[in-house]
Amino acid sequence: MADGSISCEVAVVGGGPAGLAAACTAAESGRRVVLLDESPWLGGQIWRGEQNAAAHPHASAWFARFDRSGAKVLARSTVISSPAPGSLLAEQDGEGFQVKWDRLILATGARELFLPFPGWTLPGVMGPGGLQSLIKNGWPVSGQRVVVAGSGPLLLAVADTLRKHGANVRMIAEQASWSSVIRFGLGLAAHTSKLLQAALLKLRLLGIQNRYGAWPVSAEGKDRIQMVTLTDGAETWKLDCDLLACGFGLVPNLELAMALGCELKDGFVRVNDLQATSIPNVFCAGEPTGIGGADCALVEGQIAGYASAEFKAQAERLFAKRRSWHTFRTALAEAFALRPVLKNLATNETIICRCEDVSLGRLRQCTHWREAKLHSRCGMGACQGRVCGAAAKFILGWEPESIRPPVLPARVGSLISSRSEKSGGHFR
Amino acid sequence: MSEAFDIVIAGAGIVGAACARECAAGGLKVLVLDQGPVGGGTTGAGMGHLVVMDDSEAQFSLTSYSRSLWHQLAPELPPDVEYEQCGTLWVAADDEEMSEVSRKQEHYAQRGVRVEVLDGAAVAKAEPNLRAGLRGGLRVPEDAVLYPPCAARFLLDRAREQGAVVRTGLSVTQLLPEGGVVLADDSRISAGISVNATGPWSPGLNPGLPVRKRKGHLVITDRYPAFVHHQIVELGYLKSAHAVSQDSVAFNIQPRKNGQLLIGSSRQFDAEGTEVNQGILDRMLKRALEYLPSLRALSAIRVWTGHRAATPDKLPLIGPSYSSNRIWLASGHEGLGITTSLGTGRLLADMLLNRKSAIPPDPYLPGRFAP
Amino acid sequence: MNNAVQITINGRPVSVPAGIVVAAALARSGTIQFRSSITGQPRGPLCGMGICMECRATINGQTNCRSCLIVCEEGMEIRTYG
Q: What whole-number distance in Å separates Cα of residue A234 and Cα of residue A214?
């Protein structure tokens, strides 16, 4: 459009499984769909790299379907804010632009939960999902000694990726107990359960140690990680390593939903049967509505896409499938629930806010999140409280409050919505 | 009635904190109350610019006096207050603004405030990121900047050392004409005098008070040390602050000690909500880019709003209210609350303790608005 | 990844496989410390997906770029904050 804005009937934010599925069904239902994603590729986190080198036939089928759907993609496009109903402000390659929509589907996914412990800020300590994504995008791990720790099925997947790229995976330390994980595995659909068992067997055969009920207590090294200390509550042991892939499950990316005023329930975006949020014409699917994994996200995304196009009957046909994935979702949360002792890993000297170097001791002088932000500057840095906020919530029980725009850092120029040169200035 | 204090101050912002410090230092038994954290209101939303302003003789007097109090206090301020005497640079875009520079220079110099006139070349040298072609500017080297919430906390720490009590998380719902306050749970705290230092919310405790909310927007960037060296303000800022009816924007940028840049400013009446107004934000940033074109590519982390407490004559209310001599006011500081907090605290304490003030307190007495 | 791409890292010319992200190029050049924290502690990528802001580098003169989300391009000039 002449004023630099883009207009569509359905805007989808996020190109992971939920967003792809939503874009497909909305476009197939005849709507003009635009999908925005921050990264240069589609697939979100879980299908990173699948577009080019498809390891999962599932994923490539969805990519193909998306290509056929007629939905338009805006890659490298970060949504900044919602300046007015029906309008999003976004930034691509450092330039701002507006997206005008009739219906909006939020598929902003999840990020890893990083729990602080002494040494967690050393270079080489990364999220397992993060390291996996980086490996798929060229990060070298061949010959490197890696310890994988934290919680969730993702740890096994990452260990497998690491192994395939030549890393020496010294250990996988899952904080959930062996019995929790087994119960979860047995509860999976037969074929999935078998896949899990096969994966565990493969790891054993390769000599990768798999410990349950174990977690890291400290990372050490000069300028980068060189050693990690782990414990199972009874004994502790140290492992030399070059990388520590440590993450404790996933937390939803709620920021855009909150910026739009969507109501939350139990820490997730509240949606009805049709994946509609509390804000008219705004839908949400995938991890922001509950951490359920790719298959859950696909079903929810499809429903949201049909619902946005008012194809209710098609949406309703997927309700049963969604119900079974929601059962899985609940089992997942129960199996990998985080043990309270993880709250005590950080000492008063441990940095909680990495952007402003605020320690836990400094935070303990405050009584709530807002006070901490104002007085210690925790959460006021570039990550906008994403990393420290999740940690403070887990350790101190502090709830985050309303968010301020931009939803992600953006160029000053991109915060401006209108292109007209009113002040007689000389900018574009 | 439980407990008894000489003074109960509603509002733990920087003005309430300054009053608490002065009153406690003067031997009075002080209680400070706030529903939120220290400095969580207007104090936490604003820029933290310590500036001498000459909208009126009385404003000049109060800002100049207060600034000198900040200079005295500066060596004692802890690092998290981020006090920096970076100076203000008022920039002139044309001849009309340049003659305003000359007028200000005379005015300030006559009153003993150090200033320097800079021509276009000198302005460009002082601030290389400013656009070419500015006519010149006025440098006020002894103006400074700081981080207000921590400054408020510091002042309250000083007050506590002198026996003051501070309780946050408690909302004051009424100021009693016989002295004291009523809290949200209907409990009462008695005091000789209660002080309304709640800024833009002060009419809530003093119905009919001529204080209006005046909304502002700010943007903070990531760290860009040495992008600018002074707090830079366009001379049109004064027109914006003067205006009583229109929404206005004026270019104003502050380098924080940690290298982040604070970009402002905007003023709106009848905008009670805290949501970001995109139209105003657009105007404000476009204005900023006219002066600092390379600001465009810097990374912005957050946009927020706040409300100033504005009075009809742009002077604060300091002293006994006109409804009761046991209800006092320390409110209505518009965009100068951080600067004039110390002067306010001193004047208030002077009145309470029957001391002679260093500057005449008359222009700020609430009685001037008595119906 | 068929072609190589020529970039510079902190002034040094480097050849990297086409399609990799800037963060990976930095790691391949031997550094996993991309920046320093406000108190001078060494920092490198944490989340790999653009939310932690620890992977930021200056790319072609543009500061604060999330290097985990940007693909290397021919002639790109990358600078880390050390």
A: 10
